[in-house]
TrEMBL record:
Domain of life: Eukaryota
G-protein coupled receptors family 1 profile domain mapped to chain residues: 41-290
Keywords in alphabetical order: Cell membrane, G-protein coupled receptor, Membrane, Olfaction, Receptor, Sensory transduction, Transducer, Transmembrane, Transmembrane helix
Listed name of the protein: Olfactory receptor
Signal peptide extent: none
The family this protein is said to belong to: Belongs to the G-protein coupled receptor 1 family.
Species of the source: Sciurus carolinensis
Amino acid sequence: MAPGNLSQVTEFILIGVSDLPELQIPLFLLFLVIYGLTVMGNLGIITLTSVDSRLQTPMYFFLRHLAIINFSNSTIIAPKMLVNFLLSKKTSSYFECATQLGGFLVFIVAEVFMLAVMAYDRYVAICNPLLYMVVVSRRICNLLVSLTYLYGFCTAIVVTPCVFSVSYCASNVINHFYCDIMPLLTLSCSDTYIPETVVFISAASNIVFSMTIVLVSYFNIVLSILRMRSSERRKKTFSTCASHMTVVTVFYGTLLFMYLQPRTNYSLETDKMASVFYTLVIPMLNPMIYSLRNKDVKAALRRFMMNPGCPLGQCNLGTFGVNK
């Protein structure tokens, strides 16, 4: 980050979802409900997959970390957003803005690759079931999750300083509800070619690489399902990855809508609405999708509600590989 920037811009003003005064309270209540559901849903998934012995498998281990990522990403964005609905001056300091962008990048990149890891897990479970516990062992699971977080962190420490290396010496009003990359770069009074190139290369490579893993995994899964002779087995096998396929479709559909639209059609308002979806709405929907479409999660929730006082050490009796 350029020290010279601090003498020119020391804070940014966030317009928010809307600058209409009459919408601030209704929007505050709407997003308070969305964030509340996000917190309850994702903490519920984290709790169930931690304490229920029947959910101690690689699939639910990855689901737990997807819930951690969703919860963290929303928490980086939503509290500041909610407070700003109630304030007349919606300011964010220079370093607070940079920290928020960095945190957002860590978890959005981690989510992209966590979904790819979960697709690979389903591929191995369905297409190579005899090798499942060798290929997706506890050590491999921990390694994949660690690399996912590490790569997200590395992306953040490269992209964030790059974005804030430009000069902000004119307007400090961000047409967004959080410190996002493109709204920040539009404020710059210096050349943004290098940061825009870095952002484009990073975003494109992340999306293409992760989507390739997802598409190849599900292509092989579909082929494997079609080869099955029993319709009952096909239905049961498809149901094991239906929730993840729904989550992947919604998440990548939003990203592709943002990044594949023609530049002539790009607008900050469209970007803002898409950002609402993948930073707040999708993290709220994911626990619902996995809860409503997954019999194991629903059964675990019923067991937990019937015996909420079960100590962690007694509930968590399973090991990786059981009930996959």
